[in-house]
Amino acid sequence: MRDEETHQFLKLKPVQATLSSLKMLDVGKWPIFSLCSEEELQLIRQACVFGSAGNEVLYTTVNDEIFVLGTNCCGCLGLGDVQSTIEPRRLDSLSGKKIACLSYGSGPHIVLATTEGEVFTWGHNAYSQLGNGTTNHGLVPCHISTNLSNKQVIEVACGSYHSLVLTSDGEVFAWGYNNSGQVGSGSTINQPIPRRVTGCLQNKVVVTIACGQMCCMAVVDSGEVYVWGYNGNGQLGLGNSGNQPTPCRVAALQGIRVQRVACGYAHTLVLTDEGQVYAWGANSYGQLGTGNKSNQSYPTPVTVEKDRIIEIAACHSTHTSAAKTQGGHVYMWGQCRGQSVILPHLTHFSCTDDVFACFATPAVTWRLLSVEPDDHLTVAESLKREFDNPDTADLKFLVDGKYIYAHKVLLKIRCEHFRSSLEDNEDDIVEMSEFSYPVYRAFLEYLYTDSISLSPEEAVGLLDLATFYRENRLKKLCQQTIKQGICEENAIALLSAAVKYDAQDLEEFCFRFCINHLTVVTQTSGFAEMDHDLLKNFISKASRVGAFKN
């Protein structure tokens, strides 16, 4: 397309006018999705990538069907077996269920809440992290109702081997591995079924939760943060490194209202109501964003930029941190593709999810992805739709008794021939007899789409047109199409066309093909009917390259 002319016509400056907030999330950035076809990717509406190497995925489609694929470690795909699958398989056991939220552990195990508030778990269960009262791996989703039968779960979170859920009435339940007090029960005995976390949270209304590798966080409606579990790296923010078997308030945040909390493997991020970020815990990769690699046991402010922060992101299986500003800028720090980024680094991404797809190790999702359908058409897509549309066209070509509908202004922008021929032409019908209907239609469609779709034989006719109209790019496309369709039967005809239309690259290609398949080509009708001058030149050139030595 003639970009300069298009800009002049539309009176636009070449500036980026796409709002990052309108960009649709591209799930294809996660390597595991390369196993899916483009058609399958277009149907995805929710997705979660998990596993020790980002090698497991669960996703839902526009039809509310749930599919899984991956290595299926410990039956974490929920298919009833432990067989890996390189192709998406439908998870029929959850048919009819709509996913509200989902989290995963290191085993991995899965905890899923439906839009109706039900909880289902499956996968690794050596530490009772499925909450079904056993330590047997769960090969299919199991409905967890013990102590939750009259509760509606609205949020779920998983540590490496423990699970946490939040109900609609602000209560928190935990179960699973408890070697460091991460279940919050006051002991270090594993918890086989959901148990309400009480203590300091007894009369509090919790609004959001998060889990690190072996710790838990809960934010209550007053903006206070309560923590419990493993604290060897200071990830509880209590000013020490001692484990905490029951919930304890982070006193250092006194007077600060926290809205969100996110946990990495051994570090913690919180976002305040004023858009400020605080971090604490492990910092060997710079994941606190403080400019050094020293652990912090107290909340430490993270300076991102003057703009307000509206989102923070971390995941218990990585040492990566990310944040998004009100202006749409996305920053990352911590372990990023093997590098230690010790200060927030401005990226070109439009969402924090992309940070984990492209820079986290492993490439997992930090939350359940939500992919909104993008109904917006680009300029190019809109033009493609308008080709041969009688409702909007102001010009029609009559070729072989059939009409092809077009738009004068687009033809003049895209083609030098039409710019001159349509300049003072007020007719709305143009009769065309020099070219066939398939060829001329393909030419006009090319002006709308920048592509052609023709058989090699018809592409020869389009090559003739491209030569006549001096459309060099179209000429190259025709040559590519012809090359892809060459065979022994049509090789001489295509060689003849290449010579006729001075397509030197195509001529050389056809000649080499004929030489490489000389015995068969010389027995075809095309060779027998070959133009005398062309035959003479062919034999002479073939002799020079030694084709007749034997």
From TrEMBL:
Q: Which residue ranges contain the repeat RCC?
A: 117-169, 170-222, 223-274, 275-326
Subcellular localization: Cytoplasmic vesicle, Secretory vesicle, Acrosome
Gene Ontology CC, one term? acrosomal vesicle
- Underlying gene: RCBTB2
Q: What sequence ranges are listed for the domain BTB?
A: 393-456
Question: Source species, please?
Answer: Saimiri boliviensis boliviensis (Bolivian squirrel monkey)
Question: Matching SUPFAM superfamilies, A to Z?
Answer: POZ domain, RCC1/BLIP-II
- Check the record and name the Gene3D superfamilies matching this protein: 1.25.40.420, Potassium Channel Kv1.1, Chain A (3.30.710.10), Regulator of chromosome condensation 1/beta-lactamase-inhibitor protein II (2.130.10.30)
Identify the CDD domains for this entry. BACK_RCBTB2, BTB_POZ_RCBTB2_CHC1L
The opening ranks of the lineage are: Eukaryota, Metazoa, Chordata, Craniata, Vertebrata
Q: SMART domains from the xrefs?
A: BTB
The protein's name is RCC1 and BTB domain-containing protein 2
Top-level taxon of origin: Eukaryota
Alphabetically list the UniProt keywords.
Cytoplasmic vesicle, Repeat
Does the keyword Electron transport belong to this entry?
no
